[in-house]
Design brief:
Elements (H helix, E strand, L loop, with lengths): L2 H5 L1 E4 L5 E8 L4 E6 L13 H6 L2 E6 L18 H11 L5 E6 L3 H10 L4 E7 L14 H12 L1 H15 L2 H11 L5 H7 L2 H14 L5 H10 L16 E6 L7 H10 L3 E6 L6 H4 L2 H8 L3
Parallel strand pairs: 3-4, 3-5, 5-6, 6-7, 7-8
Antiparallel strand pairs: 1-2, 2-4
Helix pairs in contact: 5-6
């Protein structure tokens, strides 16, 4: 199987939908099911491929419904996600596995910890989004505005997302827009985004998110601003959960990470004074992978 095919795989689920996924790193290594951010896709995990191989880790990065290679699922909720992951794990003959969610992928890692702890080795939350009732103080204004529109003014939310999709379909335009937005980021994230290889993957994986159009990203945005359908405090205390968050994060303020870490029963949290949203994962990936695979 070629690398391209490993990046573009699908499994047919029991209800007839197709679920898209990619595999990176050591394909015989410890399995980590990786849940991408928002707006993102399975290709985000390309950023971790080299380190995953070094650490003997098999990253299985999954597109959520309506994103990338995964069929849209109307009326889905966050609680529906674990059953998709179980079907994929069974298809790959994986009995026990690790889940890790970054940013907008964190609710999906948390719901697996809540709903299928018996199949999990441990759970990782990196710069993770929190439940909608948590304060957005310290969050950059564009994110606050986006979620406000998703909650209260859906037609404006749809308009913004349509404009994003058009921008990502124009490589020259999105390159300029991304370079302009870099100036508003904390210094650790600026440094990363100025790296052409990092920026190229970020553009590619976000563009892939809109591959089927707007339905998936719009539905997902609305899920973030609704109650998730479960409480973090009800995650099994037997399951180890690890959380990493940068104190300079303006995408998901560190206050959210602090609150999440207190709600989850068996959560070990680490906060980094000099890291931001993207940098906390990229600059500490060795530690993150070592911790998650230590069980």
């Amino acid at each position: 199987m070629s690398d391209l095919n490993k990046e573009s795989q699908q499994v047919k689920l029991n209800d007839g939908r197709k679920l898209g996924y990619a595999e990176f790193g050591d394909l015989n290594g410890k399995p980590i099911f990786y849940f991408h951010g928002y707006v993102g896709s399975r290709l985000e995990a390309k950023l971790l491929a080299t380190k995953a191989k070094e650490h003997g880790v098999r990253i299985i990065s999954v597109d959520r419904p309506g994103i990338g290679l995964s069929d849209f699922q109307s009326n889905r909720t966050i609680l529906d996600w674990p059953s998709d992951i179980l079907e994929l794990a069974d298809h790959l003959n994986i009995k026990k596995f690790i889940v890790a969610g970054i940013s907008g992928g964190a609710p999906y890692a948390s719901v697996c910890a809540y709903k299928i702890p018996e199949r999990l080795i441990c759970c990782g939350i990196i710069a993770g989004a929190g439940p909608t009732d948590m304060s957005t103080k310290g969050m950059k204004s564009s994110n606050r505005m986006l979620f406000f529109f998703a909650r209260r003014i859906p037609f404006l939310f749809k308009m913004i997302m349509r404009n994003q999709m058009k921008a990502f379909n124009n490589p020259e335009k999105i390159q300029k827009e991304m370079e302009k937005s870099i100036k508003s980021l904390p210094e650790p994230d600026q440094k990363l985004m100025k790296n052409p290889d990092f920026l190229s993957i970020m553009i590619e994986e976000a563009n892939e998110a809109f591959g089927q159009g707007l339905d998936g990203p719009i539905h997902e945005g609305k899920l973030f601003v609704k109650p998730w359908g479960f409480n973090l405090k009800d995650i099994s205390p037997k399951l180890p959960v690890h959380l990493w968050h940068g104190e300079l994060d303006i995408n998901v303020p560190v206050s959210i990470g602090q609150k999440v870490s207190k709600l989850i029963p068996n959560c070990t949290a680490k906060f980094y004074p000099n890291e931001a949203h993207f940098s906390v994962a990229m600059n500490n990936i060795d530690e993150i992978l070592e911790t998650l695979t230590s069980y």
